[in-house]
Write a structure and sequence with these properties.
With about 260 residues, the chain is of the alpha+beta class. Strand 11 and strand 12 form a beta hairpin. The termini are close together. The chain has six helices and 14 strands. The chain is about 30% helix and about 25% strand. Helix 1 runs antiparallel to helix 6.
């Protein structure tokens, strides 16, 4: 009788262990750049340049050797009097792709890079200023990281560019359940959304068109098979444990009664 009971318990344990084993994540699902070789040199063919989009917020400051001459071309809030420094007012690119610049009027900059915008403004300011210096900065460069990452959220980017790896680093990397070979990047450019997937398990991802992110990109990490399986594992495991317990208890009762 004891041998039969032990056999039933062993069978139940095997069933539960099989469920857990099948839900485990394999090494191929979690390792980055699996096909990269030691001391291998990869030349990136990315020629990424940030472009301005509708609703971007930018700051523009014009300066010259004569500070008084450049004042009319800077939007300032407040006064320099009383030791209080005037605050720079930012520009929002409107639905026509333009900013309303002091004195020179509407300037279309959507689709242009920061450097191209600086050159355009210098050209338009030449009739008014001698050798103007343009300082320009994008103020709303954010990326959103969602899904199977440790710290999902929207992050402000300091600087003019960020890679998908750096963005995932801001989110403290993918969880063990994140699908590394099918990361989705959603990009919006003036109302048109483009969906692109990138395989971070391959070195070729360094040359993906979405390796460098643009402002307001959304990075979504899908759950892998292990995550999908484990989402119902607790429920299934508890059910199987209950079933196994009932089977063992019933079997022991039947075996005991028959003896």
């Amino acid at each position: 009788m004891l041998e039969k009971i032990k056999s039933l318990r062993l069978s139940s344990i095997v069933i539960i262990m099989c469920i857990i084993t099948f839900s485990c994540t394999s090494k191929k699902e979690i390792v980055y750049f699996q096909n990269a070789q030691d001391y291998e040199t990869i030349i990136s063919d990315n020629s990424h340049t940030q472009k301005f989009k509708i609703d971007d917020v930018i700051s523009v400051h014009v300066s010259t050797l004569d500070p008084e001459a450049s004042l009319p071309f800077n939007l300032l809030k407040g006064s320099e009097e009383g030791g209080i420094r005037a605050e720079q007012i930012d520009y929002i690119i409107d639905k026509n792709g333009e900013i309303d610049f002091p004195v020179i009027g509407n300037v279309r900059i959507v689709g242009m890079s920061p450097e191209e915008t600086k050159e355009l403004l210098k050209e338009k300011l030449e009739p008014y200023l001698k050798n103007p210096i343009i300082n320009l900065r994008l103020k709303n460069f954010t990326v959103t990281i969602l899904g199977e990452v440790r710290s999902p959220g929207t992050y402000l980017v300091n600087g003019e560019q960020i890679t998908v790896l750096e963005a995932l680093g801001l989110a403290n990397d993918l969880t063990i359940k994140g699908m590394r070979d099918n990361v989705l990047v959603i990009r919006d450019f003036n109302g048109t959304k483009v969906y692109t997937r990138i395989d971070l398990t391959k070195k070729e991802s360094l040359n993906s068109p979405v390796y460098y992110l643009t402002q307001n990109d959304v990075v979504y990490v899908e759950p892998n098979k292990s995550a999908v399986s484990s989402s119902s594992l607790d429920t299934r495991a508890s059910i199987w444990v209950s079933i196994a317990s009932v089977v063992i208890t019933s079997s022991v009762f039947i075996i005991t009664s028959s003896n």
